[in-house]
Fold these 3 entries.
Entry 1:
Amino acid sequence: MSETKLRSLKDLPTAHLLGAGTPMCAGCGALEALHEIYDLLGGKTVFVNAAGCMTLLSVYPYTPFRGSWLYTSMASSPAGAQGVRDALDILIAKKRLPAEEDLTAVVLAGDGSSYGMGLSATSAAIERGLDFIYLCYDNEGYGNTGQQSSAATPHGARTATHAGVAGFGGEKKDLFAIWAAHRPAYAATVIGAEPLDLARKVERAAKLKGPRLILALAPCPTGWDYDPKDTVDIGRLAVKTGVWPLREYADGKLTHSRVPHPRLPVEDYLRTQGRFRHLFEPQRNDALIAQIQARVDAYWREAGVGDGAGAA
Amino acid sequence: MSRILLTGNGAAAWGARLAGVDYVPAFPITPQTEIIETLAGWCESGEMDGRLVLLESEHSMITAAAAAAATGVRVFTATSSQGLLHGMEMVFTVPGWRAPFVMVNVSRGLATPITLEPDHTDVLAARDSGFLQIHCATCQEVVDTILLAYRLAEDPRVRLPAIVNLDGFYLSFTREPVELPSPEAARRFLPPFEPGPVAFRAGSPVSQACAVLGGSAYSYFRYQTHLAAEQALPAYADAAAAFEAEFGRRHAIVEAWRCEDADYVFVMIGAFATKAMEAVDRLREDGWRIGLVRPRLLRPWPVEALRGLLLGRRAVVVVDQNLSMGFGGVLHAEVASALYGCPGAPPLLGFVGGLGGREIPPGEFFEMARLAREAAETGTVPPPRLLYTEAELREVRKLQAIAGARPKGGKP
């Protein structure tokens, strides 16, 4: 990221564009990320929304956005972006619209839509080379309906549909890798708790054309069961424990923008959240904690960077 | 103007081309595919100044269509049957965006069992969506109706998407002589699309399709869409008059065939209604005073026009090419609702036929006419009936025997 103008936190935008007073929960990690992203993308955007928590940002007659908004459905927001983008291109090509009226189409979708119901529409939009930014806020469950397990739920987490001692038995799908396999213009994972890393990636994405993913892990006080004041700390721990690798895909290359070193034990992250409390109380589940640690270790070993990279 | 031979699908493609469509989000499905292939060819060759994009599903296709219309371009799309149902969430969603476009549905029976030939159960599933719905019976009507549908959908009183329906196989693949409007005349009748305030622009942000909290705001917007749909009746009358002035062809909201002095009237929609026309002609040769009423507009439902044509008849026969399971024919109920409680409301007989392209032969129309006369004379209306012959049943019994579902040589 050599071309960045963003060298330190002091370079981040000081004007905040997204309005306050939204109906999101206190401490919402998705809103935290959206605030930071919107400051950089600005109002010359149309946010094409899929059903999820963020649908409640624009409840008639209010909106926190300076730009435009279109709610579509849970499964088809990339197709909504396609229609808007194609129409703008046609209007500009036919000289029925001055180029300065152009907008960036930004899909805004949660993990329920992005990892599941909307994945077919997303894959097709990437394959068509659609010029758009896809912003996924990933709170690792169907948060808006009370945190049922989704395809983004991590192994072992307690959810409304997997409330037993083992938690969710499945594995979190690697949406970033699925995007990268499509060879898009750009893909990155971010988190609101690392605003400089996030800002550099959004800055880079905004300069490119084509399909671009910004995938934000979104700590969720209500869904993950923790005190709203801890959102930033938990976000930082997600990075420091290696649970949420900060990745980037550009020019056909996959890189890590941050390699945690020393990488903290996952337990430090798991202990902060009620959704993992069954790993520690009433009895400590060493086997499951070790399993989760092993998965994270395996990721970094395969990535070939950071602690344990040479341990294979 | 030139007269050429076109299939129903070819006519639909010409309708879109003459409408000056900018954008065609598409997805293939039998028997509609010829429409999008034709348009793809024209967009590719530059004969049409439009852009065609293949989406990965009808759900996405309808989303893209409405999103593009909401950005201010003229949009055309087409689907059929299972595809229409796959997109049904968006069929119900996008009318509220108040972004007009035209979608052709080439009717085809719905699974299960999966089949290819037509009936109207697919398109009637969109009845309550907010899409306007117009049914065609000839290839000429297909071209003309697409132009009319844009004018109607884009009318400031209406601003709703419209479905133009044609029957799979019987109309989609049937070649008929069609008089094509000249591009200049089509442009006079249908000027370029004016999106008005519903459009995404950097300089004038809008929020579209927002959530509401509570029933009052929700009801307000739903009522507004309903009232806009009702405005399509006067808007249709204006558009049809302008169409006749430009092209010399009149397409009524409800078409009537030999109804002037008719004691008895069939009611049907779509291409199979031409079978009823044929039956009417033959019955008239035998001295019957009988006619056919064919609603073209199904949504909004033209209650006054139907009352004008049906009240005072000795009996009316509704032939439904659809089936609402556990209820019967949808059109039968719609006609009944239009006539109920009116002085002079005739006895109303209901028949279901033509499912999955099943033939309705002249003999069945003659029998339905006979039953209508009997009902008028006795004052007793027979219960709704599913048209089926013993010969058909014997054929199905043979299939069942082969399938092992019935013992060979067993009783039918």
Entry 2:
Amino acid sequence: MTARPRRGLRALPAGGRIALAAVVALWAVAAISPAFSGRAREIHLEDRLLPPSGAHPFGTDDLGRDLLARVVAATPISLAIGLVAAAVSLGIGFTVGATAGFFGGAVDLVLSRVIEVVLCFPVLFLLLALAALLPPSPATVVLAIGVTAWPGDARYARAEVMRIRQLDYTRAATAAGASTPRILARHVLPNALAPLIVSAAFGVGWAILAEAALSFLGVGLPSPAVSWGGILAAAPAYIEEAWWLALFPGVALFVTVSAYNLLAEGLRAATAAQGSNP
Amino acid sequence: MGGADAGGDAGPVTAYVLRRLALAVPTLFGILLVVFLLVHLAPGSPVAGGPEAGRRLTGRAAEEMRRQYGLDRPLGERFGLWISRVTRLDLGESFVDHRPVGVRIREALPYSLLLNGVALALALGIAIPLGVAAGGRPEGAFDRISSAALFALYCMPSFWVALLLQTLFAVRLRWLPLFGVASDAGGGALDRLAHLALPATCLAYGTLAFVARLVRSGIVEASAGTYVLAARARGASRRRALWAHALPNALLPLVTLLGLLLPALLSGSVIVERIFAWPGLGRLYFDSILSRDYPVILGLSLLSAAATLAATLASDVAAAAADPRVRDGTAP
């Protein structure tokens, strides 16, 4: 193999590299967050709804808890749920999509109808039904997001595997008499890996948003677990007096989702550029 | 030339429509199956039985469920029973106020149509000119700025945006009402418009970002086409080449995706209608989830999925009518 023009991190465009740094920084915050969990739980009713100040950079909530500590303490749970739920979604979506794309014909026809069925439902309708009707737990939230988000991954995987199936090296392997498992393992899966990672990065962004939406609506994580969406759920009641309750948890959410989506776009650009090089 | 034999002299569009309709039948069956299983297999749902069942529903409602869904019968037979009721357009009665589900949906529908219609018009009305302007000069200053802004919009959770807009426009500036459909005093069209502004904006911006990005990439791709170059060579202005020649082709992928905007808008409605106390379908669905009003949950899921199926069917047919390449599967 001749050297590809750009490999590793340098293949990422500038935005992607910044996003990667942001994602690493967020996980670093998650790693040190246990140091804040005590402060995040301290109730000081005399300090309730204090605006941002030196002592409380993000202000305090309706129970006088430090909002900065709460936002930091919520980081690991928001990130972890996003990651695991995206993995569940990708697992289901890739299996369905790759099977449809690889075998085609009747298999594709049936699996494509299954994808179409799920896409017909408003995703939040299904999410709410699953999250509210199943026993409340982190596993329920992860499962609800994974089970509703996979059609996107499936369509992506299907198109990608169909494309690879048409390429000369796959056809050559078929002509040479390679078995189906061998073609899958040696030719299709390794080449579908890059788009798979792109899909996963977009999936994390969506899963974090979905978890936040569920927690905001009050059917997400059961207490005492608190995510950014859960902190935001208190904001509407104090919208007249405490803008900081709405602002800061949302900023954390926005920065995280942007970082993952920007990383995904960077990865997509990098893999597209690599694919066009011989 | 298979498929055309159905009608003898059927045109290519008719043949495509027939094929597409045939594929929609199993999808509709799948939708019915998903809705049925949603309630019947959820642990703790009244119909699943078990220790949870008694606690979640009062005796009367559980009895109602049992009667409506024939719970003493095997699962397959229950499914058949349910389908036969649905095909007679009998969605059952709400557990909450014992009125027919259809009536409750019909009450919320006008509010949803108004909010979603305004949001969709807002999104398309801004997204298409924006996408054309950005795609007309790819990598130009306007394209870079609008791309960054659209990306940011795309990553913003709607409930956060809603709270920020409420804080700014309702609490600080006092320009717009915090929530509701109209002021208690009644008020005219202007009052209703003021109540519509924030929820419609929150519902629209996600779709706006999605559509603008789609139009932009469509324009960039179409501008490279020889027909746009030919239009310019014949002396068409840059503006005319973009709007009259590149845009129709750039809109084609949008037409096929139009049907899928419906479930996206309904999803957004759940959150937006809750924050702004808007009595539409999203609010009805969320309230029904909280009160475990199964007939309403089932009816709304079924109707929204069926409506989406019809909408995707219509947009596929529209795309096929507009572009022969869609009909014979050679679309780019």
Entry 3:
Amino acid sequence: MLAVRRLKEKTIKVLLFITALVAVVGVILITIFVFGKGWPFWEKYGLFKSLMGRVWLPNLDGESIFGLVPLIVGSFCVTAIASLLAVPLGVGCAIYLAEIASDLWSRMFRPAVSLLAAIPSVVYGFFGLIVLVPVIRDFFGGLGFSLLAGGIILAIMILPTIIAVSEDAIRAVPKSYKEASLALGASRWQTIYRTIVPAARSGIIAAVILGIGRALGETMAVIMVTGNRPLIPKSILDPGVTLTGTIGTEWAYASGEHTTALFAVGSVLFVLIMLINSIAIVIKNKGELK
Amino acid sequence: MRTRVRMAEKVAFLFLGVTAVVTLASLLIIVIHVFKGGVPHLSLKYLLGKPRNMGREGGIFPTIMGTLWLLTASLLLAVPIGLGAAIYLNEYTQKGLLVKIIRYFTENLAGVPSIVFGLFGFSFFVIYLKLRWSILSGALTLALMVLPTIIRTTEEALAAVPDFYREGSLALGATKWQTISKIVLPAAAPGILTGVLLAMGRIVGETAAVYLTVGGALHLPTSIMQPCRPMTLHLYILAGEGISLTGAYATATVLLIGVLILTIAAQILGNSFASRNIGKKG
């Protein structure tokens, strides 16, 4: 009886261990199957040459040219615009919610942030297509389909990440810091920007990096508003294309070598995001240890 | 001097208040705009009708069913695995290298962009495992995608269960698994459910990963091995290819309503769970 029981306990433990390994196996399989499919591309076109190539021109019949610079520039631009807009807004909002707003008000605000995070990216893209693109066209001229449109939509999409993670970091600052600062005669604002924000710095930086990672990895919303033209943009009002957008739009008709090239683009994206996320995780953990 | 400090504070607080207003306004503008365009077109006939002419006319019933098939199948895969992993990480292991590795991989899995999940799902499930473009391929991909969410929220819920629950049960002679399954899990259930609701929201709203794995055929799916077109993909095709603006508004509205309900339910449940546990500890 006891032996049976012990066997059962052991079996359960082993089963649970296996479930815990699924995530690990998943990441390994993703790495193998995305990189593996993209590998022939690097062999044929050369890693350095493709990463430095300034022309992206898949040709259905003849020779194709696969230079990743236009895609990387496009991704960089929309991400930069999104961060420039969302970081001050998001961190400001987090400070407001954690330090200034009344308890009731910030409790009512939190569901709004979750809702913003829950809206599907394709709905953001649809809104951008219907509202934002025409507005940009009317105000600034051009097509409206632009890196600016992509950046603005992405900014709204990464706001909840930045707000939620920064707010947690700010709330985690010990109350004694704040009390000491106020007791020394500092005003509330002085306390916030000289004491609380510096103490929450690592968490806030992690929030920003996570937001950037999200912006870089977003696909559908970007596809719908940036115009998807693989040219190196001259201004933020030009259409452009991102790493994600290239995969998303060209997927539908790609075949053979073109598909391999898209997997290569996916690998570049994967490496970039893994790097960014690892930095965020390290910074966050360091902050928590302190 | 004093007045300058006070002025600075006023200006700063005003700016911070404005950031909060802008955030709230973005949410309201998007939701209200979509609802205004979509609600007038909603009817039972639209929800339960067959699409005609590629979605220009008729209803969206097959896409709703596509979303529900994907949702059910991916939850059936992700919830047991996610729960198991969280229980193992929180109840069975102390700190160690292995746990660190598993945590690191789980956190990184959470950061993988959905289009990369799509590429993976295509090359692994659709091609390598020969599951073709099907609900199953899509659900397997989605399950992997939401796994980190379920693991993290479940871990948090388990960690919030006070230790004396476990000690009391073990002291009464229950085994470890009996303690977990009969005492710890029920106490953590609302928190776990919150995580599941969040995962459901992500599954319902996902497009890119699904786009590359489910095919997108606009028909009523009858088995898990068939392709399908969930609502998100339908919206993308309607709006992106300019097939039907009213259809896009209506589909976006249904999608938003679904996601809003899931998120609000998660919020309410999460709040009640948090306050209950604080009560317990005090």
